[in-house]
Write a structure and sequence with these properties.
heterodimer; A: 449 residues; alpha/beta; Glutathione S-transferase Yfyf (Class Pi), Chain A, domain 2; Rossmann fold; 22 helices; 8 strands; 50% helix; B: Arc Repressor Mutant, subunit A; 5 helices; 48% helix
Chain lengths: 449, 105
């Protein structure tokens, strides 16, 4: 297989309970799974039956515009699966074969799926422009789920999936390291502000469970520090959880089973500390997974689920913010802009924190993806990802000179600095929205002179 | 399968270039990695970062936060990036024989 990523090995797949399927039974097994998925998600078969090949999606897709690869055109990408679906599950395809857009399952089928379903970031911009409302992202995710059950998935995703199942976070951080990191950050906050600002872990009988994004205890600590300061000033009774340290749920990207299990883990984590209010941090896909799939996955959510940016926007009048001398823009994470409608809160907050706020064009639900979403942050895809980031770079270029791109999602935060550097905009800094709040916030009990 | 040649012996690497068997790490392994990314000579600062990472990993089974690594070694992020290109996670952790940090990085 000629794949743009390192495929997971047999023994790694075992951690997810996956057995690789024999070459000889691949066709039969794939068609069984396709049948299972079309019955599981009616929307999936409707979208497979609907495309008129009008091509409106071509101009909408950053992956196609960046790579110029025909199979990255959303209708063509979905067509890789649609043609097989047509051949085996529609009367016209069974009867008229190629004339009805049907294609036989052959040795190339899974290769092309495995390659091109992982060159889509599931940003769903094509769905905004499709006159039929086809969400190619849904087709891609179904395709990835089918591939995984066949034993085909990127090693990057399988490692993270395993870490989530075993430790509740992407990196595999265990409780002693969480405590060590948080007490270090408390020291940092004390040095900076002179105030004892707590970052509690597993504090019992707590009102709010906070789930920051992946990497806030590794690279993006400023985002977590911003949240800690705000919670302190507002007097919020909050805690992190070692059961589930992060909002991330990589199941959304490739495995419905992990999605469900990890959602259950969120409920366990909230119950363990008695939280009736769960606030998710700056994690795009994690917010979409929780906001849009939690109830479908495991029934009614027994707590108030809220995004940290909605929470902070609501309490903005209570915060004493000074405007930072920055010209800044907001990158709408796809999972906010198109996935969950989280559009106004981040704008409201950034505007309150900087001297000059400028909008990208297009923006909100028409914003272009950073090019690193849906679990494509593996190093070996770096060059492709820079191509996926071409449209984003163009959007940011138009705003230069620019100091700051606020990107409230850990994937975007990992991808955008690389894009900025690659396209010659290394002087523009990328960070979170809560980072800005943390820096703009005037702490009431400032350090004595 | 990729290998790193260390004193005439082959050390097995995974697809990301990290050690398959972390117990095979030695200062010579670090130097062999260094040669691959044009680290001409290992200075005290190199070893300080390497042993800090190894000690932290030994205690916590994970790489330290980058900010903590900088603070405790007294080196700025830029300095660590220059010492171990491309940076702490994918450069220094590899040379120090830690597993590749996973997550949205």
């Amino acid at each position: 297989m000629n794949l743009p990523y390192h495929p997971a090995k047999k023994e790694d797949l075992h951690h997810l309970g996956i057995e690789q399927v024999d070459e000889s039974s691949m066709k039969e097994r794939t068609l069984d799974l396709l049948d299972e998925f079309r019955k599981f998600a009616r929307s999936f078969s409707v979208m497979l039956e609907t495309c008129t090949r009008c091509g409106a999606c071509a101009k909408a897709c950053h992956s196609y515009l960046g790579t110029d690869d025909f199979n990255n055109l959303p209708a063509a990408r979905a067509g890789l699966l649609r043609s097989i679906f047509a051949r085996y599950f529609t009367w016209s395809g069974r009867l008229f074969r190629g004339f009805a857009g049907a294609r036989e399952f052959d040795a190339d089928t899974l290769d092309t799926w495995a390659s091109y379903f992982y060159q889509c970031t599931v940003c769903r911009r094509c769905a905004v422009y499709c006159p039929c409302g086809i969400d190619t992202g849904e087709i891609v995710l179904a395709g990835r789920n089918i591939l995984l059950r066949m034993g085909i998935a990127p090693s990057f995703l399988v490692t993270i999936g395993r870490n989530e199942l075993q430790t509740g976070n992407n990196s595999g951080i265990l409780k002693p390291a969480i405590i060590d990191s948080c007490s270090f950050l408390e020291d940092e906050l004390r040095d900076e502000t002179g105030i004892d600002i707590r970052i509690p872990v597993d504090k019992p009988h707590t009102e709010v469970l906070f789930l920051p994004s992946s990497s806030e205890l590794f690279t993006n600590v400023e985002t977590l520090l911003g949240a800690a300061k705000v919670f302190h000033i507002l007097g919020v009774d909050w805690t992190l959880s070692s059961v589930m340290l992060e909002a991330a749920n990589y199941g959304l990207h490739f495995d419905v089973e992990i999605l469900k299990k990890h959602d259950r883990r969120m409920r366990t984590a909230a119950a363990a500390v008695g939280a009736r209010h769960v606030i998710l941090g700056e994690c795009g896909h994690g917010w979409r997974a929780a906001r849009m799939y939690a109830e479908g996955a495991n029934g009614p959510v027994p707590f108030h689920l809220e995004h940290v940016l909605d929470y902070v926007a609501k309490r903005l009048p209570e915060l004493n913010l000074t405007r930072l001398p920055l010209r800044a823009t907001l990158h709408d994470s796809c999972n906010y802009g198109r996935g969950t409608g989280l559009l106004d809160s981040p704008r409201q907050i950034v505007k309150a924190c900087v001297e000059e706020f400028v909008e990208m064009s297009p923006n909100r639900e028409r914003n272009f993806c950073c090019g690193g979403g849906s679990g494509l942050l593996m190093d070996e895809m770096h060059d492709l990802r820079m191509q996926f980031g071409k449209m984003k770079a163009r959007q940011i270029q138009a705003l230069q000179p620019l100091d700051y791109v606020a990107a409230p999602c850990a994937s975007c935060k990992a991808q955008l600095p690389l894009v900025l550097k690659h396209y010659g905009m290394g002087a523009t800094v990328c960070g979170g929205v809560m980072d800005l709040v943390g820096k703009a916030l005037v702490m009431e009990e400032m350090k004595a002179p | 399968m990729a290998y790193l040649k260390v004193n005439g012996k082959l050390v097995e690497l995974n697809e990301d270039g990290f050690l398959v068997h972390p117990e095979e790490w030695s200062e010579d392994v670090a130097r062999a990695y260094g040669a691959l990314v044009n680290i001409a000579e290992f200075t005290d600062n190199h070893w300080r970062v390497i042993y800090y990472l190894r000690d932290y990993y030994e205690r916590f089974r994970i790489a330290p936060m980058i900010r903590k690594l900088c603070k405790d070694t007294g080196l700025a992020l830029k300095e660590i990036e220059d010492l171990f290109p491309p940076g702490p996670a994918k450069g220094a952790c590899k040379v120090a024989g830690l597993p590749k940090p996973a997550g949205c990085l």
